Amino acid sequence: DGGAREAFDATRHALLEAAQTALADAAPKFATLDAVAGFLERWRVAWAPSFRDAYVPQSAPQLLAPFVRLEMLAWEPLWGSEGAPEAFDAMAWYASLFEVGTAAPRDGTEGATR
């Protein structure tokens, strides 16, 4: 039904516009997924015991989820969207997080993210 699609598009457009301001007041070092993931990865590699003791491995999904969700808002797997990836593994958040946690900690500890 064309009317339902138009209503969906209008609501989606309003939601995407509102999402653009979600992190507008965040400090630059916390405003992007790459910045936050990079900070966490540097911490994990340089100070693995501190990283573990602060329960970061358990908290990382909650810290990174808002960035992923903001990008996922634009994903339209049913109808597709011009300029949007068709698969989630083609999205920027996936590429940013794909290798997080793969570098060995400097102190040689194993399982630093467990």
Description:
The structure is a single chain. The protein has helices at 2-19, 33-46, 48-53, 56-72, 92-97. The model has no long low-confidence stretch (mean pLDDT 86). The chain contains five helices and no strands. It has 114 residues and is mainly α. The protein has one domain (2-97). The longest helix has 18 residues, at 2-19. The chain is 54% helix and 0% strand. The chain is elongated and about 60 Å long. GO terms for molecular function: DNA binding. It is found in: Nucleus.
Question: What topology does this entry show?
Answer:
Layout: H1 2-19, H2 33-46, H3 48-53, H4 56-72, H5 92-97
Subcellular location: Nucleus
Protein name: GCF C-terminal domain-containing protein
Organism: Prasinoderma singulare
User: For the residues shown, what is the average pLDDT?
Assistant: 86
Global shape: elongated
Q: What class, by secondary structure content?
A: mainly alpha
Report the count of strand segments: 0
Please give the alpha-carbon distance between the first and last residues.
49 Å
Radius of gyration: 18 Å
Helix content: 40-55%
Percent strand equals under 5%
The sequence of SSEs as H and E is: HHHHH
Largest sheet geometry = none
- How many domains is the backbone divided into? 1
Q: What are the low-pLDDT stretches, counting only 5+ consecutive residues below 50? A: none
Count the DSSP helices. 5
